Amino acid sequence: MEFESHIFRFFLYHFLFCRVPHSTGLTRVLRNQRPSSKIVTIGSFSVIRERSEPYESSVFEASGYKWRLILYVTGNKNDGGNNHVSLYVRIEDTESLPTGWEVDVDLKLFVHNARQRQYLTVSDGTVKRYNQGYREWGFAQLIPLSTFHNSSQGYIVQDTCSFGAEIFIVKPVEQQESVTFVSNPPNNVFTWRLLRFSTLQNKFYNSPSFLVGDRYWRLETNPRGVGPGAPHLPFNLEAQGFRPNAVATTTWGAVNLRLRDQLGSNHRLGYCK
């Protein structure tokens, strides 16, 4: 009896961080939860309503780093923020960070809607990579001024408004796996000879284990057959353990089973995958 096997295994893991210089396609949704990193509440907002210079918040800590909110209440004209409120988050105290530092951030910015008791959540779905060349990220078009100043909208109530930020660090992947797609691996043919076949009992017999790729295998059969009426001869391929120092993982395979005709060429073939 001859066994031919072809073990195919494939798994690809690819993780990529990307950064775009200017945010497009902003998503704005209302949510009940408060921002987890920072909230700045501004009273007597009318005093700075027409101010073009940015307001910088106090330094706060989030996710192990120090940050500051940068708010343009009349929009950052140099970043396409005309007729909008602009809001950014700048990383601080970078002198203490190692040379070549990079911090990848999932950033969300917020405007409080006091009338609805919710937070307008603004994001663009990209990971912001902070480094020495890009220490400040945010959205020039956080919210249109026509919406923000409209008293019926609820963003400014009793001359008070609030802004916030949520900063989550996206850490580099700690575990990676690279597996090669293998066709016709070495030693992929195994022959199992059953001697004195007619004297074998009505039970399942197992072949010796054999190694193909990183995994051990064995064949199983019952010489008396299984099933009611006219029993059929079963052949099963069973996966066993892995060779020493191999990575235990899921194995994908395609297998040819052959029952050899020892007197001619009328072999019985079976294929599974």
From TrEMBL:
Q: Name one Pfam family in it.
A: MATH_2
Pinpoint the MATH domain residues.
35-167, 187-273
* Designated name of the protein: MATH domain-containing protein
Which organism is this entry from? Brassica carinata (Ethiopian mustard)
